[in-house]
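Researcher: Next entry: Hexosyltransferase (Canna indica).
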Amino acid sequence: MPLSPLVTVVAALLASAFSSWQLLNAAAAADLPHFREAPAFRNGPGCASAPTIHIAMTLDAAYLRGSFAGVISVLRHSACPESIVFHFLATDPRRFRPAVAASFPSLPFAVYRFDPAVVRGRISSSVRSALDRPLNYARIYLADIIPRSVGCVIYLDSDLIVIDDVAHLWVTDLTPDHVLAAPEYCHANFTSYFTDRFWSDPDYPRVLAGRRRSPCYFNTGVMVMDLDRWRAGGFTRKLEKWMEVQKREVRIYELGSLPPFLLVFAGNVKGVEHRWNQHGLGGDNVDGLCRDLHAGPISLLHWSGKGKPWLRLDAGRPCPLDALWAPYDLLRREDQLFTDS
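Model: Predicted structure:
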């Protein structure tokens, strides 16, 4: 039986709308780099009862290559990769969602919008302009953006690769009441993360008193976060208050989004083995500085600092450890655009 004129018109309108939606998505992602499709990673034996692991990351154009390398590194080393769900934060989800789907067609993921206006009035300049990007502060708002059905996440920066099964990090015990877990570095000079004006104030340093332990530096690029406790304790607002002190009252630190985390959590962090954050491979804030690995076993390599491995490799001036990042690079180069590789 032929379609009625009304059904024909509706079908045509739906087809036109779908075509427009596809064109809008394609246009939004047109200025992004081209990436290869990652292989499909399947669960190994014994994964039927594996827990769902939630991982949070950010997406932006400058670091997208690093984010994709991080994703594939997590999947490649997981015994149960199909049990991992990724939660991405981006200022323009429509721009990045097609790129993720194209490179990881079997990946369970969601892309949420992070509104940069939330932090724009709270960000003060730091030692590196890259640290002043609004998206660098998105980790503060994970508990507000990710659905409340997700009670815990592993947050990962976009300049790292995982070379171990992330399930070992996921089972970090946060009981009885820790909000987050991370590798701590108590040999670092904690006082150096804040200005003399902070330490000379009669009130500001008191916030660090009464902690479980003496406050220690920890790197916020790798954290296990209990989002339920974060929400219940109002920790987003606690971090924002220190950002407002810095912006509106007196300059108390120089280093982006890290110091507010130290002020709120240092001394109350659940310690994790250092193997889960071999950080500083980007040479801190010095151009061209190559770092060696820390002593001990390694589960995660983190190019925190100014030097990113993809930039140094492209420039032909890599550090030796950048070769460890290269196998996870999904960038499709110009000579590969018309191949099946």
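Model: Note for the record: The two ends are 46 Å apart (CA to CA).
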